[in-house]
Structures are given as C-alpha cells and as structure tokens.
Amino acid sequence: MIAADAWVPLAEVARPHGVRGEVRLRPYNRDSALLLELDEVLVRFADGDEQEVSVDAARRADDAILMKLYSVDDRDRADELRGAKICARRRDFPPLEPGEFYACDVEGARVVVDDGTGEARELGRVKEMRSYPTTDVLVVDAGDGGRPWEVPLVDAVVRALDVEGGTVTLATMDGVERE
To answer: Which of 50, 68, 92 is a domain's end point?
Structure first.
C-alpha cells in the first residue's frame, strides 16, 4: 500500500484560464471532489522538478477544474504550468467503504494465479488501472518480460484483492487478455 505522505497525481494542467493566473485542470477522475477541497498541492513538472504550492481557490467548470495557485498571478505564469501534474497526498483522500480501493493503492501489487493446489504462481505486477465503458482492468507488467496484459476486475477472474498485502489473486486466466 502506498505511504500516507506520498504524493499521488490527480490531474494534469491543460492550459491557462483567463488572465489572472487560473489554470484549467484535466482531472483523472471527474467524479472526485478532492481537488476542490485541498489547501496544498504538489506541482510535478515534466522535467522532474516538483514544487509544493498553496491553493487559493478551486471550482468546477464542466468536465474540468479551474484552480488558482498561490503566486501564479497572470496568464504567462499559468502557461508555464501547462502539462504539469497536480498531486495530492494519499492521506488527504476520503475514507473508503469496505471492499473499495484506490488505484494508487494496488500499483506495484503482485498478481498471482491460484492453480488449485494451494500454490500461487506469480505472473507479474500491477502497473496501472484503466477504466473502460464496460469494466475496469488492471494492467499487469508480465513477470516473464513479455508485453503488459489486462485483467478485468470481475469476480469470475479476480478471486481476491489484498491491498494491505499487495497481492491480486486470480481464480482463472480465462478472460485475461495476454498479448
């Protein structure tokens, strides 16, 4: 499980908005209100530079979020943030209901298949989670060095997901897309 003080990317700066330094964010989860509630974020630039910044204001605008960051006071300064990731600390995430998890909490988890003998065979590690219109999937980096593959998050395929133990146990390989 990811550390509570780890910074997790939640959005990308799409472009400046207006002339007073607001930026338009493209959130990774449009349904989340977390970006609207934060007092501080980490701005992670493409070159690896990072800067913690106070949030002056944030509001929704259709599918985007408009955010005003401290010391970003004009359009030129806002444009310098284009493409940067906006991150929040994991501890700032809302609590989960039983059976729920955040995608960042399963990244790096071992993916194993239970062969029925009680022995679990490791197949790879979770790289990321993707959402499709019909289901969510875990993208797995193959342990044998092959191409990444997808595991649909459905009960027929995933037997158990142990976030704290860092393990995803598959009941079967049926329905799993391996390239």
So the answer is: 92
CA–CA dist 26, 113 (Å, integer): 36
pLDDT on residue 49: 97
Structurally, the chain folds into a number of domains equal to 2
142-131-15-33 Cα dihedral, nearest 10 degrees:
-120
In a domain, 97, yes or no: no
pLDDT digits (tens, 9 = 90+) for 114-136: 766 667 788 899 999 988 888 88
Could you identify the residue written with the tokens 């142990």? 162
Distant-in-sequence, close-in-space partners of 70: CB < 8 Å, separation ≥ 6: 53, 54, 55, 56
Q: Residue 60 pLDDT > 60, yes or no?
A: yes
Write down the pTM of the prediction: 0.79
Q: State which residues form the domain around 145.
A: 103-170
